[in-house]
């Protein structure tokens, strides 16, 4: 009901540049896990700072659409049912369907979004390793570092991905009208225009519905050789730079070690 949790892996072909980047803070041990443990974290959408991210407006279906939904459902699941019983079934569903109850609609959508977030993970990366604002905001004013990934190898751990489309108004999701493919596209790959400076690409992972009942492992191991470069910020402390250089030399000896100009 407005939430597509499974079946997204083949909904969007990957459209990625050769190298993708992620800005990190050196002082944050969680951020250093990328290099030390050779893994990336696929975040739950409800942890994003932008509360509209992956959570655009959802337009509720009309009574006619709901009636058609239950009619088609009855034809598929109970083809043997006489027409009089089918009409009664649809009438009963209309009278009890939570989506038709205006007092519970919003709480229903929030509950479904919460379940969606438990089963869905997003990795946000960018095509630009020289973005001043990204260095300021995501690498602690150039004191952190930026990791470059081979995008083809990065895509191997993902269920789909591509570039973000930036717009003045997020496209609404039309419940029970939009196909799962269209809903997935609208939910994951659109952001408001004031985020355009990020030049973001996204990779996603979807866990099965059973993931709602347990805590999924969001740190996903990278293929060998996926990390191709590490760029240290121009304001990084010399001691941090030496430590970063050591980590890269030991864990990613084939990666290029660079300094921001």
Short description:
By secondary structure, the protein is an alpha/beta fold.
Write a concise keyword list for the protein shown above.
single chain; 21% strand; three-stranded antiparallel β-sheet; 261 residues; four-stranded mixed β-sheet; disordered N terminus; 8 helices
Describe this structure in words.
- This protein has 261 residues and is an alpha/beta fold.
- The protein contains eight helices and 13 strands.
- It has helices at 29-36, 63-77, 83-96, 105-118, 132-138, 151-155, 180-188, 238-251; strands spanning 19-24, 39-41, 58-59, 120-126, 145-150, 161-163, 165-167, 173-174, 190-192, 200-206, 219-221, 227-232, 256-259.
- Strands 1-5-12-13 form a four-stranded mixed beta sheet. Strands 4-10-6 form a three-stranded antiparallel beta sheet. The chain has a two-stranded antiparallel ribbon with strand order 2-11.
- Helix 2 (63-77) packs across helix 3.
- The longest helix is centred in the first third of the chain and has 15 residues, at 63-77.
- The chain is elongated.
Q: What topology does this entry show?
A:
Layout: E1 19-24, H1 29-36, E2 39-41, E3 58-59, H2 63-77, H3 83-96, H4 105-118, E4 120-126, H5 132-138, E5 145-150, H6 151-155, E6 161-163, E7 165-167, E8 173-174, H7 180-188, E9 190-192, E10 200-206, E11 219-221, E12 227-232, H8 238-251, E13 256-259
Parallel strand pairs: 3-8, 7-9, 12-13
Antiparallel strand pairs: 1-5, 2-11, 4-10, 5-12, 6-10
Helix pairs in contact: 2-3
């Amino acid at each position: 009901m407005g939430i597509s949790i499974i079946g997204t892996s083949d909904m969007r072909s990957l459209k990625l540049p050769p190298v993708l980047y992620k800005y990190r803070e050196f002082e944050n041990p969680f951020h250093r896990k990328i290099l030390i443990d050779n893994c990336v974290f696929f975040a739950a959408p409800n942890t994003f700072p932008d509360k509209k991210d992956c959570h655009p407006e959802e337009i509720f279906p009309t009574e006619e659409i709901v009636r058609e939904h239950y009619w088609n459902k009855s034809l598929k699941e109970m083809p043997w049912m006489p027409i009089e019983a089918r009409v009664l079934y649809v009438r009963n569903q209309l009278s009890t369907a939570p989506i038709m109850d205006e007092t519970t609609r919003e709480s229903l959508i929030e509950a479904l979004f919460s379940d969606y977030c438990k089963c869905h993970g997003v990795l946000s990366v960018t095509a630009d390793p020289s973005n001043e604002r990204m260095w300021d905001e995501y690498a602690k004013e150039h004191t952190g570092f930026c990791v470059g990934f081979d995008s083809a190898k990065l895509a191997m751990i993902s269920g789909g991905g591509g570039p973000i489309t930036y717009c003045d108004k997020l496209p609404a999701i039309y419940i029970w009208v939009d196909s799962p493919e269209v809903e997935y596209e609208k939910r994951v790959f659109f952001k408001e225009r004031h985020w355009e400076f990020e030049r973001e690409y996204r990779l996603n992972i979807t866990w099965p519905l059973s993931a709602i009942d347990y805590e999924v492992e969001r740190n996903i191991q990278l293929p060998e050789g996926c990390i191709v470069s590490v760029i240290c910020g121009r304001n990084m402390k010399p001691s941090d730079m030496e430590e970063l250089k050591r980590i890269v030399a030991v864990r990613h000896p084939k990666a290029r070690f660079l300094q921001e100009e």
